[in-house]
Write a structure and sequence with these properties.
By secondary structure, this protein is mainly α. It contains nine helices and no strands. It is elongated.
Length: about 230
């Protein structure tokens, strides 16, 4: 079948382009929701692990327990495939849930948190320890210094890595098809099943993913340049 006819069947007939648009909206929603969970979870885990590493002398037992839990979390999440985690969330933990988007956001967010935690931890460790000591000498608590002084500086250092995590998350949304969520990839699969033509639907969504990733990369570069200019002032 000619490429033009395949394009018409895959995108024009029955206004199927609207299905792709709806799937793209779901993919973006899952990406943003998972990123929010991943950043919050990553900051909490990174702060706990950094606090444990920075303790001198006698270790506080509750910090040691929290650090052990964080290490297990990071090891398990980073050591198992994303698809397997989605299957566990979708068909084991939340098998009776109809909120597939929520399940996907939670699964991808928890997965992202393990990677973001190590990214942020590296950023925190790159900050001069003297800044923490200076803040504490002024009477500020550990949490206050971390929130107001250390983490804002660390975010600037790790922005490229966080941008890459956002791009990875967006591409990983293609895996949510395994739990039945109708994202961009699921739409292409459904249209392929109707038209019996695989070339145009899958090439089409590949181009869509590529365009979105290029846009995100461009925005990341603009933000990095703006932050560098602000640092020079």
């Amino acid at each position: 079948m000619p490429v033009k006819e395949q394009f018409i069947q895959s995108f024009i007939t029955g206004e199927r382009w609207k299905l792709y648009l709806g799937g793209l909206k779901i993919s973006i929603l899952v990406t943003l929701g998972a990123l929010a969970i991943g950043v919050v979870l990553g900051i909490l885990v990174a702060v706990v692990r950094t606090l444990h590493d920075q303790q001198r002398g006698k270790q506080k037992w509750h910090i040691a327990i929290l650090n052990a839990i964080c290490k297990v979390y990071i090891t398990v999440i980073r050591g198992t495939p994303m698809m397997v985690q989605l299957l566990i969330f979708g068909f084991v933990i939340f098998k009776s849930s109809r909120n597939l988007a929520g399940v996907a956001i939670l699964a991808l967010g928890i997965n992202s948190g393990a990677y973001v935690a190590e990214i942020i931890r590296g950023g925190i460790m790159s900050i001069d320890p003297g800044q923490m000591e200076a803040g504490r000498s002024l009477g500020l608590g550990y949490a206050t210094v971390m929130k107001s002084v250390i983490i804002p500086q660390a975010i600037k250092n790790i922005l490229p890595a966080l941008g890459n995590e956002l791009i990875t998350l967006f591409k990983d949304t293609s895996l949510v098809t395994v739990i039945g969520l109708v994202d961009l990839t699921k739409v292409a699969i459904q249209i392929q099943a109707r038209t019996y033509q695989a070339f145009m639907p899958f090439i089409g969504i590949a181009i869509i993913y590529l365009v979105i990733v290029l846009i995100l990369t461009k925005l990341q570069g603009l933000l990095e340049r703006r932050l560098r200019r602000s640092d020079r002032k």
